Amino acid sequence: MSNVQKINTAVFPVAGLGTRFLPATKAAPKEMLPVVDKPLIQYAVEEAYAAGIRHMVFVTGRSKRAIEDHFDTAYELEHELAAAHKDELLSLLRSVQPADMICSYVRQARSLGLGHAVLCAERLVGNEPFAVLLADDLMTGIAGGPGVLGQMVAAFEKMGRSMLAVQEVPLDQVRRYGIVDGEPAGRNLIRLEKIVEKPSPEEAPSRMGVAGRYILTPRIFQEIRNQPTGVGGEIQLTDAISRLLTHEAVYAFQYEGKRYDCGSKEGFLEATVELALQHPQVGAHFREYLRALKP
User: Fold this and answer.
1) Residue 274: Cβ within 10 Å count
2) 3-class DSSP state of 132
3) For the segment 86-124, what is each residue's pLDDT rounded down to a tens digit?
4) Alpha carbon of 290 to those of 36, 258, 271: distances in Å?
5) Which residues in the chain come in under a pLDDT of 50?
6) Which helix (H) or strand (E) holds 63?
7) What pTM was computed for the model?
8) Which residues are CB-neighbours of 255 under 8 A, at least 6 positions away?
């Protein structure tokens, strides 16, 4: 489709309390928890940047100033590194926010759900399609290939319709996800017919669960505004997408890569170990350390 709009903006809902990681998240945002040497939110921002997106919108809460500081300029630290001729560290520090990347922030004053968080970004997004990335889901593409959002952006440029990243999940875990059902529509694509938020295994229409990456058309804002509260008394993004289906096509995208559920302690530890093994500086030594551990 030649008239498909480019994805210029990514929205990061980061206002959650991170209660599953207490007490670590009592004073620090869960999105700032480090996996090896980078905070979770930086992995998500780098994925969006690699997909060609340059405007990053963070939907924050009153305890999330550390995220704003992380993507701001640290003048004193840069000065100290420059004076000490630590050029490699200075370059690494400045790479956190490249010169062509714009960061915007908006507060979600009340915790009313993911749909409400996305709606908070409406004025910053404008009337154009946009991406949503959940930092809890640390996602990597196939080695040497594009990231998950990069894969989705390429698919969107052909289809021009909203799409959600999906993966097959065990039946006993469907109640943790939005679950989709539909018809195959080409390589890696399913045209949605139904999406249900956190169904029981008996009610789940499939085992295809929504992962934390979305590309949405601006019509979604209208659907969020006009919907009642859903599961948990919150304004669910899943419900808005279900309403969107009555107006335009929506696709599920079966990505190539891996998702780490860093909203759980187990997933966070898995990501830490696997990404540490892949790290160019510490990977080899860490692998030997793990091999030497006694069972």
Assistant:
1) 16
2) strand
3) 999 999 888 898 999 999 999 998 888 899 999 999 999
4) 15, 22, 15
5) 1
6) none
7) 0.93
8) 139, 141, 148, 151, 152, 165, 166, 167, 188, 211, 213
